[in-house]
Amino acid sequence: MAYKRSIIVTGGAGFIGSHVVRLFVEKYPDYRIINVDKLTYAGNLANLKDIEDRPNYRFVKADICDFDAMLALMQEEQVDGVIHLAAESHVDRSIKDPFTFAKTNVLGTLSLLQAARLYWESLPEKYEGKRFYHISTDEVYGALEMTRPEGVEPPFSTKASSGSHHLAYGEEFFREDSKYQPHSPYSAAKASSDHFVRAFHDTYGMPVIVTNCSNNYGPYQFPEKLIPLFINNIRHRKPLPVYGRGENVRDWLYVEDHARAIDLIFHEGRVAETYNIGGFNEWKNIDLIRVLIATVDRLLGRLEGADEDLITYVADRAGHDLRYAIDSSKLQRELGWEPSLQFEEGIEKTVRWYLDHQDWLDNVTSGDYQKYYETMYTGR
Ligand code: NAD
Ligand code: DAU
Question: Does residue 263 have an active-site annotation?
Answer without folding.
Answer: no
